[in-house]
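Following up on my earlier thread - several people asked me to post the actual chain instead of describing it. Fair enough. Here it is, all 457 residues.
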Amino acid sequence: MLKDLNLFNQLCEELIKLEKEHPVSRPIPTAELFNELDLSLNEEGIVDKDLIDTLTKIIKYTPKTASKSFFNQLFGGRMSKATLGDLLAVLLNNSMYTYKVAGPQVGIEKQILNNICHLIGYNKQGDGTMAPGGSMSNFMALIMARDFKHPSVRNSGVISEMTLYTSKEAHYSIAKNASFAGIGRSQVREVDTNDKGEMLTSHLSYLINKDVEAGHIPFFVNATAGTTVLGAFDNILEISKVCKTHHLWLHVDGAYCGGVLFSKKYRHLLNGIEHSDSFSVNAHKMLGTPLSCSIVLTKHKEQLHKSFSNEADYLYQTDSDDFNLGKTSLQCGRRNDALKFWTLWKSIGTKGLEEMVNKQFLLAEVARQYIRDHENYTLYSFENSISVCFNYRNISAKELCTALYEDSKLMVGFGKYNGIEFIRLVTINSVLEKEDIIAFFDTLEHFVAKKMLKTAT
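Reply from S.P.:
Thanks for posting it. Predicted structure:
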């Protein structure tokens, strides 16, 4: 084991070196992948030197998500203390379903859940669990809402036409989860949004009333804290009033930007969160934790247990239900996703997480101001968002982003809203500084001048 740990350190040094020298890896076309790299699995194993050479080459061509040129997804960067926690979790190799096999790791997860419940305002009424991704966090919320509305569903199945509501800009998992839960995709009502992508409460009320008149059973509303493209926040307080009127479960999908919960400056974007029934947040996004670290919480502790518990004498043999986390989990065996977030939170404190969140908004404003100050740019973004959407010289966003990627200059994606396609620069990468934002635009402009405009002429 010590020998392989030394090998691991060697590979880490190579990775960090590559991130500095080649922050954007040269992409291997899919048609050439298996010819370029030896990914074969054979009857006989290979000796250490050959294995090291193969791993080094794989590292070379793997996208560098912790580099300062990575703006492509809703995650990025590398916080060393969080990485330390993740490595320890792998070495400890505990499964989190029982206290007997996880021991103090259960306490670590429960401490995280308790602290976040307190920040939301659920306090002692609340509880939660770690889920395998934001989509599954939303799925767990949907299941709790379904069972809360119709307790018999767990045994009898869905026998009535239940309807749920989410904005047109919400995450695609909502419709997918409706099919998983037996509700059906056709029972998902898409609520209109304003120019910023925020849910229109008036249209929500209209759709609910329409379904009630038709004899349907509305049960669930999904509000979004940080829409995937524009990074918009739905008005939770106003939506909660509609939910209260119609006795509907309110879930807030904060997978992207729910981390503002930790910021005094930006907490107002979640006004009314204490009135929600459930809330999800991905610590691997705004909160700088390695993938994946997804958390779902609810103010209805009993419902979490009712929806996900199942007796298993061969598994739950010691300790109380509160410390046997499999009783409130979607999974049975699951890896320890809590330790990496705990080591980060423990080492930098709640104030450190707050600074991390505030910095992302600051960098987004640096990017927006640069765009405002320079001609040839068109801005489609707005304040209180860490998604900076723009176009440059009226060049196709898809074409420009693809060219930057293929030429190993920048990793940045594109999005679309109201029929307009644009570059989407996300400032969530935890290692970015102001100068990295300016360097992004400098790289983009020089690339266009050298490659794209030259080619066009």
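The longest strand covers residues 217-224. That should answer part of your original question.
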